[in-house]
Amino acid sequence: MTNTIHIDAGSGYDVLIGRDLLAQVGERTRRALPKTARIAVFTDTTVQPLYGDAVERSLREAGFETCCFVFPAGERSKNLATVGRFLDFMSEHRLTRRDAVLVLGGGVAGDMGGFAASIYLRGIPFVQVPTTLLAAVDSSVGGKTGVDTAYGKNLTGTFWQPSLVVCDTGTFDSLGVDQVLDGTAEIIKTAAIRDADLFERLEAGALKADPEAVIARCVEIKGEVVASDEKESGLRRILNFGHTLGHAIELKKDYGISHGRAVAIGMLLVTAATRKNGWTESGIYERLLSLISSSGFAVETDVPLEDLCEAARSDKKSEGDSIHIIYLQTIGSCADRTVRFDALYDFLKSE
């Protein structure tokens, strides 16, 4: 069974979720992009040997010409240099505005490939084929693209919505523990900020019992938020719960910690602070801690709080002398307040 969720952002697009969808990528892409002639596949050295040939074969069977750019897997490749090489690759293959990019991989590939598509010839279509749980529930949907810089994560990028997302959940069978945890953190975040029923289902083991239903619900939630605030001027900020401190942890660990592990700790740090400051209902921190720890995450970091506060100054959510803090009021309901940087350390420090 294939779940189809329509995202009402950009020109509007469908997200397809189910097993054994890779063989349908060409046919589905042809429906979404009927006039496209050629497709540049953007993928990494881990994913290409696993799924690259199957995807290119499906595209060719649907009448597309293909070429494939492969970059070294990992967060350290997520920079302007990699994007620049891909732009040159597309120029060398003489792609035009009638052509498109297909991103095959996780969030790193999706962010970079989408960014390249958004600036090549001032914008060509792209298709997301996420192969990680994290990309499926988060980065493949919503149109955020970009790269990291020396000053922080995702500081250079654009908003550029895909034309189609095809999520074959069978690709998750090849994921390691860290990659599963990356996606699990985003699932917990989504439930915590927007869906108390989903959070209760996660507490009862729904992610293992019915992963496709959980993924579909997370995509629905993100789609609803993005449709109401595509450019992150208001409501969409709630999707950053745990990310301000999570990104700071990633930066200070030189990306030696996975995104999901960092975000899980970030959610706990900010919720401990908002509980202390009376912003979060009693008992909420304990439920969040229980779900995060039982899912297999570490719940503390060895990065000093002073360093996290310093790194947070480079976060995209900073405004002048303050930063937006997304926090839980209760499970399923969150809010946004600003905290001055000169008060952030005292705000976050434990009682």
Specify the structural class.
alpha/beta
Spatial arrangement of strands, main beta sheet: 1-2-9-6-5-3-4
* Count of distinct strands: 12
Reading off the top of the CATH hierarchy, the class of the largest domain is best stated as Alpha Beta
Main sheet summary? 7 strands, mixed
- Determine the number of helices (DSSP H or I, runs of at least 4 residues): 14
Helical fraction equals: 40-55%
The gross shape turns out to be globular
> Which fold does the CATH topology of the largest domain refer to?
Rossmann fold
Overall domain count: 2
* Unreliable segments of 5+ consecutive residues: none
Query: Radius of gyration over alpha carbons?
Result: 20 Å
Separation of termini? 50 Å
Q: Report the portion of residues in β strands.
A: 15-25%
Q: What is the subunit arrangement here?
A: single chain
Indicate the mean pLDDT: 95
How does this model look, in words?
The protein is of the alpha/beta class. The chain has two domains: 3-174, Rossmann fold, CATH 3.40.50.1970; 177-348, Dehydroquinate synthase-like, alpha domain. Helices cover 45% and strands 21% of the residues. It has 14 helices and twelve strands. The chain has helices spanning 25-32, 47-61, 80-92, 107-119, 133-139, 177-194, 196-203, 206-209, 211-228, 243-252, 259-276, 284-294, 305-312, 341-348; strands spanning 3-7, 13-18, 38-44, 65-71, 100-105, 126-130, 144-149, 152-159, 164-168, 318-319, 322-330, 333-340. It has a seven-stranded mixed sheet with strand order 1-2-9-6-5-3-4, with helices on both faces. Strands 10-11-12 form a three-stranded antiparallel sheet. β3, α2 (47-61) and β4 (65-71) form a beta-alpha-beta unit. α6 (177-194) packs across α9. The radius of gyration is 20 Å and the shape is globular. The N and C termini lie far apart (50 Å).
